[in-house]
Amino acid sequence: MNEHDDLLSDAEREALAVLAVPPALAQRVLVVDDNQVNREALCLYLKTKGLDCITADGAQAALECLKREPRIGVMITDLRMEPKDGLELIRQIRESERAALSIIVVSGDTDVKEAVDVMHLGVVDFLLKPVDLGRLLELVRKELGIN
């Protein structure tokens, strides 16, 4: 025990600890889709719900965004993209320093095997298009720790 530990009460130490920790920056949502209309509509919806959202127009752009933007806490991705699909994107993320990233998949065209493969990669959920926006918002907020 340090000789100065008795100078502060427990309550004073807790108050000081809160002041010493800088406020956390809000986490961002990354929406990945090679269809501009889908991508921008989803991001706009999330912004109207108070979420900080950015977009990427495909897998390569998403990987670059994840490297330069540490505040991304959730990624929402389509599966059907060119030239690299969403399944390959998720695999690459799971093998990177961002392996723990929360990922939600949205897709309008899939089969059971592909859905199972995606779930085995540890995604939060797999939603079919047209997306239930209420369910998506609920999942995103849960993953970001927002009530």
Structural notes for this entry:
With 147 residues, this protein is of the alpha/beta class. Helix content is 44%, strand content 18%. It has helices at 10-20, 36-48, 59-68, 86-94, 112-120, 133-144; strands spanning 28-32, 52-56, 72-78, 102-107, 125-128. Strands 2-1-3-4-5 form a five-stranded parallel sheet, with helices on both faces. The radius of gyration is 19 Å and the shape is elongated. The mean pLDDT is 87.
Number of extended strands: 5
Summing up helix and strand content along with how strands pair, one would put the structural category as alpha/beta
Average pLDDT for all residues: 87
Q: Calculate Rg over CA atoms.
A: 19 Å
- Terminal CA distance: 39 Å
Q: What portion of residues is helical?
A: 40-55%
What composes the largest sheet? 5 strands, parallel
What sequence of helices (H) and strands (E) makes up the elements? HEHEHEHEHEH
Give the overall shape: elongated
Strand order of the largest sheet: 2-1-3-4-5
Strand content: 15-25%
What's the number of helices? 6
**Spans where pLDDT lies below 50 across 5 or more residues:** none
